[in-house]
Amino acid sequence: MVSTTIKRTLVAMLMVMGTAQVLATDEVQSVAPVPKHLELARELVATVKPENNKYVIRGPEGVRWKGDLFTSENTVNTMCTGFVSAMLEKAKNPTVKEIESKTYWKKHLRLDSYWEAVQKGYGLKKVPTLDAAKPGDLFMFWCADGVCRTREGYDAYGHITIVDAISKRKQPTPPLIENTTQWLVTVIDSADGPHGREDTRWRPKGEPIATGVGRGTYRVYTDLAGIPVGYTNGPNDPKYHDSKERPINIGRPLPY
Asked: Within a domain: residue 39?
């Protein structure tokens, strides 16, 4: 005959096993599939050779895939908006066509097209807080202060990227902004330089600057409600850009 103590032990063990199984199931269910446009962006980071990679003022046609006509290797010769549009179009996501149907600019989407789409809710769903952002969302900022310039000297409305990973809280380091939380936001984009030393485009001092597609990390500051209020171009970059001069938006593309 099984004693009361043994019975209680068995029951406790079964409850623990059951709880572990539920947690494991929840964990599996919480792992969302990677959006196709993010898969394609990751592929380019992994495969494009430095000699085939350059930030250029050009539209989505600047991204060429191995197997395209007269193309034997993946290449990137485009700017930030061209890169994002190329990923969405290649993935057959309806976002670009939806935004194009509403914008006055028909040649190819510009940053003001994406920005307006987030603000007005067509083609992109606004993600209000940083902790709600998911891989595949579009992280962008607008240069309302009018001083965004590329290294080549071109004026720029701002910048747009594809979020590559769930944002992580960062131990606060200077510059310290009162009543804010610091986060690390890893992105993939086509840029005219790296976002921090861990960026795939980072090169030692003295070597030519690498541009084009790459993976890097912004430090983003949020208020206590989780709304972005500023950023630095890299985890430890000393220059802070406030959202009053450079507003920040996060937009979620249409579902596939």
From this structure: yes
Please report, for residues 16, 26, 28, 29, 34, the alpha-carbon distance to residue 23 in angstroms, rounded to integers and kept in the order given: 11, 5, 9, 10, 22
CA geometry: angle 174, 159, 64, nearest 5 deg:
130
- Tokens 């790296």 correspond to 194
Assign 63 to helix, strand or coil: strand
CA–CA dist 214, 191 (Å, integer): 8
Report strand pairing: 53-55 vs 75-78.
parallel
Distance from C-alpha of 17 to C-alpha of 211, rounded to nearest angstrom: 51
- Give 88-141 pLDDT, tens digit per residue: 999 999 999 999 998 876 678 999 999 999 999 999 999 999 999 999 999 999
- Residue 9 resides in a domain: no
Domain presence at residue 5: no
Strand, coil or helix: what is 84? helix
d(Cα 168, Cα 185) in Å, to the nearest integer? 7
**Count of structural domains, the chain:** 1
Domain of 189, in residue numbers: 33-253
Which amino acid, 23? L
pLDDT digits (tens, 9 = 90+) for 21-31: 434 434 444 57
- H helices present in 56-135, as ranges: 80-90, 95-100, 111-120
Global pTM? 0.86
d(CA 237, CA 19): 44
